[in-house]
């Protein structure tokens, strides 16, 4: 399932702070210069200064969320999934909207809070920002994200059985003997060792399905899944990197998002 696919994660507090400031700056610029919601018609003392305060209504919730999502990331053994990213984006937007509501009522307009007005606030003032704010936030999280790799222990005699989409299409091997899987259109080439010899079998499946059967495998590129224990060396840089695997003569490309995490893993690998 696509929502269970692992993705890169923004683990750095520094990068999280930077992206929160970028988001806050964009929101403040929109409020001051574009003046949506008839802001120009409201006579409020020190209006521009108070509008800048909405930037902090973005920064503080984002940093608060990052504190808790860090624990979530650790509990997943350093992995981050699409469903988690979507939850953070939606929950974060709701939290930012709620903080902005209280800031608007208590600070900007100096009024008493009215719980029944919160829904109207979300509908009239928060929802119009969804098409701009959430995609831009998701983009910034992606740009500042990186992947991490951790040693995965597996049973040396654990047998992996991969069922293809075609009838009677099955591949079986020990998890430790897996070398690589390469996606090609609707098929996947699976490389593994049997009796000390490299074997290659093609199966009608997806990398996501292969990954679900081999938890210890690492996706280093959108088309390649490898056994980290079988990596011989890494070369190149984050713009154009590749790895060589045991039993294979050609190089496997590594995407920029995975290069630094993979390099650090290999440096610390026992």
UniProtKB/TrEMBL annotation:
HTH LytTR-type domain sequence ranges: 168-267
Keywords carried by this UniProt record: Membrane, Transmembrane, Transmembrane helix
Record Pfam families: LytTR (PF04397)
Keyword Transmembrane: yes
Alphabetized InterPro entries for the sequence: LytTR_DNA-bd_dom (IPR007492)
Transmembrane segments: 12-33, 53-74, 86-105, 125-142
GO molecular function: DNA binding
Highest rank taxon of the organism: Bacteria
Protein name: LytTR family transcriptional regulator
Organism, as annotated: Subsaximicrobium wynnwilliamsii
